[in-house]
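Key result, reporting period 2: structure in, sequence out.
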């Protein structure tokens, strides 16, 4: 049977002790949350670990949800935060060993994560966008994900990333420009180049159309 409760009702039920409500809620949005994690980290293993961290955090912090945003927005931000935390720890580990994570004992129920081979591979356009994001420098990719995918404001992203708003704008601008160039072949979805991108032959390429 389909659970007809809203996301907010499911989260409230979880806080009240319903043992199935949280899994039902996550089941609705699992694919989207996985996509956000993968686009943010550009690494399936890191994305899987970050998403698991995020869902454990959401499970434990559900009572802190105040309803001032949609439940999906709340979940997405927890996922993005978990991804950024892992990226930062990964950068630090490159020079200084860190102890293992804090989750020695996990009381949350097991949550099935989406398999990228099953979901991201289903649509070539989605895969192309994901690959294009992965090719961006990390600072630009994170700025684009926060602002353009997750809908954070420039000021919110700047505060979280501890950098000036102008820096976030600049990273977004450069990232968008690279994405536009990389995904130019998607602009004509009805043409023969809608699936396979053109080879990069430089400015002298002769395949120009009016």
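The corresponding designed sequence is given below.
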């Amino acid at each position: 049977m389909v659970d007809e409760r809203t996301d907010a009702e499911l989260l409230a039920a979880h806080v009240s002790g319903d043992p199935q409500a949280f899994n039902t809620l996550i089941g609705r949005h699992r694919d989207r949350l996985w996509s956000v994690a993968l686009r943010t980290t550009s690494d399936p293993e890191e994305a899987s670990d970050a998403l698991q961290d995020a869902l454990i955090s959401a499970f434990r912090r559900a009572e802190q949800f105040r309803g001032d945003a949609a439940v999906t927005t709340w979940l997405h931000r927890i996922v993005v935060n978990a991804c950024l935390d892992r990226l930062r720890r990964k950068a630090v580990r490159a020079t200084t060993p860190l102890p293992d994570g804090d989750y020695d004992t996990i009381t949350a129920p097991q949550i099935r994560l989406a398999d990228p081979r099953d979901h991201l591979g289903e649509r070539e356009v989605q895969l192309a966008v994901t690959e294009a994001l992965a090719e961006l420098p990390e600072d630009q990719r994170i700025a684009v994900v926060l602002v353009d995918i997750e809908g954070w404001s420039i000021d919110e992203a700047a505060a979280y990333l501890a950098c000036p708003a102008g820096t976030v704008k600049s990273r977004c601008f450069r990232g968008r420009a690279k994405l536009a160039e990389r995904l130019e072949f998607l602009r004509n979805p009805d043409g023969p180049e809608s699936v396979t991108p053109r080879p990069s032959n430089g400015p002298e390429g002769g395949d120009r159309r009016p």
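The CA atoms of residues 104 and 145 lie 30 Å apart. The first helix runs from residue 7 to 15. This case is discussed further under Risks and Mitigation.
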